[in-house]
Amino acid sequence: MSAIGWALLTLGLVLLFWVVGTYNRLVRLRNAIGNAFGQIDVQLKRRYDLIPNLVEVARKYLSHEAQTLEAVISARQQARSAEQSAVANPTNAGAIVALAGAEQVLGGALGRLFAVAEAYPELKADQTMRELSEELSSTENRIGFARQAYNDHVLEFNDAAAQFPTLIVARLFNFPIQAMLASTGSEVERQAVKVTF
């Protein structure tokens, strides 16, 4: 084999190893996104389990506020459905965007519930309601931290997949840009749910 043949073979092997290494790095980054979403999923399930208990305690005191309570339950169901779709494919940008939207609706419904509950001193004094509110507040904080970790992993993946020459491998092997879990609503919707009793 001539010197040119050896040079081409060496160049081909270097290129092959680079493509394999780049592909493996993108797979590792995509899997990190899935893992980070798994942490969000754990906290969302915890939150979804707390909401019916919270509504049940509030129902005793807010009998004529049934519409508010039903809105919370409906928003919970929609968010849970969106969460299950996102769990099935945590790297699907559409599922993540749908989850973020459903979570905003749920946050708004919870905010309205707590605003209504402020007018009922007996409800504010209820020990179970206070405990559930504290647990929900703690869970909201955990969700926030898990979302931040998820967004950090998405940013790292997106940066890698969009930079040249990795961009070539990302497009060749269908590694699409991932969606972040970010608020897309108004400033009122972006405010955290205030849980105080």
Overview of the structural elements:
This protein is mostly helical and 197 residues long. It has a single domain, classed as LemA-like domain (de novo design (two linked rop proteins)). The protein has helices at residues 3-61, 66-88, 93-117, 121-125, 127-162, 166-172, 187-190. The longest helix has 59 residues, at 3-61.
Shape annotation:
rod-shaped
Distance between the termini: 82 Å
CA radius of gyration is 23 Å
> Which regions have little confidence, pLDDT < 50, spanning 5+ residues?
184-190
Quaternary state reads single chain
CATH superfamily: LemA-like domain
Write down the secondary-structure element order: HHHHHHH
Number of strands: 0
Largest pleated sheet: none
Helix content: over 70%
* Tally of domains: 1
Mean pLDDT: 89
**How many individual helices?**
7
Structural class: mainly alpha
Tell me briefly what this model is:
The N and C termini lie far apart (82 Å). This protein is mainly alpha-helical.
Keywords:
single chain, 197 residues, mainly alpha, de novo design (two linked rop proteins)
Protein topology:
Blueprint: H1 3-61, H2 66-88, H3 93-117, H4 121-125, H5 127-162, H6 166-172, H7 187-190
